[in-house]
Amino acid sequence: MPEPFDLAGTPLDLHPEIGQLLASAPDIEARVYRDGEFLVREDEESQEIFVLLTGGLVVERAPALPGGPPAVLACLTAEDGVAIVGEMAYLGALRRTASVRSAGMSRVLRLEPAHIDRIIEGFPMLTRVICMQFSRRLQETLQSLSRLQARFALNPGRRMAQDGEVLFRQGEPAGELHQLMAGALRLERGEGVETVTPESLPQGFVDLGAYLRGGTHGATATVDGMAFLAVLGAGDRETVVRCFPDLVLKAMG
User: Fold this and answer.
1) Which CATH superfamily is domain 153-252 in?
2) How many Å apart are CA 198 and CA 210, to the nearest integer?
């Protein structure tokens, strides 16, 4: 378990804005993580942001195959400058898209959403770091989409959807197939509501069976926070069948 540490009694070379932030928000938690301890875990619901002060962090996703190694997305060290993790869950109101664990012993600041709001209001350097990292995560998503296009000869449209935007409604013709690349959606069926993420959907596809049959949507899909999607038209059905035969068989079964 992480332990608190005394900032005042620990000699640290802090960036001036971090020092100003700590002075304006003395309730910010300072924590020590041992080697291998997790700051956040993939798919959990939390919105804290962590500022690395000393040591290193590893950002990783669950293995693509059961029993395989995790996919390492990034390795961060305090020597690289101001390093911040967790911004995707805050800015997009999303579930965690990756796990973050300590590499060796690390010291971090744990910021709650109220602290982050304060940063955006009055700390331009820290805001710039958060926005740059958020932009980098979106770029990684775009690159994943490009690799998908190259592999399967699909040509989906790209769409960034905002909180509360309705992608489709229950009973409407399923003329398009939405593939959730990042973010979360609320699926409403009658009185039931389910929140889905890319990890909880088959290849990220939403209502695949209705699209393949040319039927109507069985739920209303609303963006929860922010979402990045690939959108395939009715003319892409044959390509989807050719590229994802196992998923198609399951969806049509």
Assistant:
1) Jelly Rolls (2.60.120.10)
2) 18
